[in-house]
From TrEMBL:
Pfam families membership: Glycos_transf_2
InterPro entries cross-referenced by the UniProt entry: Glyco_trans_2-like, Nucleotide-diphossugar_trans
Lineage, highest ranks first: Bacteria, Pseudomonadati, Bacteroidota, Flavobacteriia, Flavobacteriales
Keywords from the UniProt entry: Transferase
SUPFAM superfamilies linked to this entry: Nucleotide-diphospho-sugar transferases
Gene Ontology MF: a single term: hexosyltransferase activity
Protein name: Glycosyltransferase involved in cell wall biosynthesis
Glycosyltransferase 2-like domain span: 9-133
PANTHER family the record matches: GLYCOSYLTRANSFERASE, UDP-GLCNAC:BETAGAL BETA-1,3-N-ACETYLGLUCOSAMINYLTRANSFERASE-LIKE PROTEIN 1
Species the sequence originates in: Chryseobacterium defluvii
Amino acid sequence: MNTSHFLVSIIVPCYNASHYVKEVLESIQNQTYSSIECIIINDGSTDNTLEIVNSFTDPRFHIYSQENKGLSDTRNFGLEKATGDFIYFCDSDDLLPSHAIESLVSAYTGKEDIIIGKTATFAWEEKKIVSFLPHPKEQQQFENAHSEVLLKNITEGLSPIAQNKLYRTEFLRKNNLKFLSGIYHEDELWFFETMFNAKNVIFMPEVTYHYTVDNAQSITKKNSDKNLLGYLSVIKTIYEKYYLKYPERSITAYYLAYLKKIIIGNFKHHGNYSPEALQQMEKTFREVNPEFKDNIDLKNIEKKYFRFLNNVSLKDADTIRKEYFNNPVNSLRKHYKIVIFSLFNK
């Protein structure tokens, strides 16, 4: 299939990115695939980000500036302005290898809703790859009729970031997919919603994104009540918008338990939440209490594990801390294995 005629809209939200943004935009400008438009949104920066952005005269670059609205609203603005056949998100502190867009577009056969490249974690100051975000080892195509991508994520792990995924624009607009405004961890919800709706997804083995891990200003690297409340908003939204409306989709209950595990894990390692935030966690966990069906392509041991996770989440925060955060039994999965072992050896 000749894919050279497709226009790719690259959306770059920028907030106080003066240390990074020149190199980021140069990496976009130098793409071997030339049929791009780069939508750059200055989200109320207080440094000289806008001055740097305005120094680029590439006619493919479209620059907008707004008062500070946050990442979700800024990406949504970019989605509104995009005119391309495909959408691609790039953060203002990450870099694209020169072949990135060409590699992703060339994988399109006419049926894929989402094409995903491999993401390298990147030390900006040293300019070197550190490791890689979770990704299939080889090229893998999912018809996704039975939520295969979401199942793979809860059992084997995938990167939930919105970046480094080529989304077919028609797919996003047909399903009215947008980022939830005003929360942290919006990518977790975006990942679920896009993979819940996608009919065909392909994972490519090529590295097509360098994800900066030494930016101390990154919001998601800090832990606070807002991080916890962001995750709680994600599971409430999935529960109300998908679990209750699509009861035949068994994956949603298991996915909610998977997200609860992430929240409890963050609680264990960053237990500096306020009493009010923990009360909200307890309340949300009780409200988001799904029923689990067996008609899902999971091993019985995994089905039982996710039910176990949900049962743990229904306990109060103090009990969770006392019962599950003690060494040497320092993970929920180890606790689960002990429970199973004791049942089989009574």
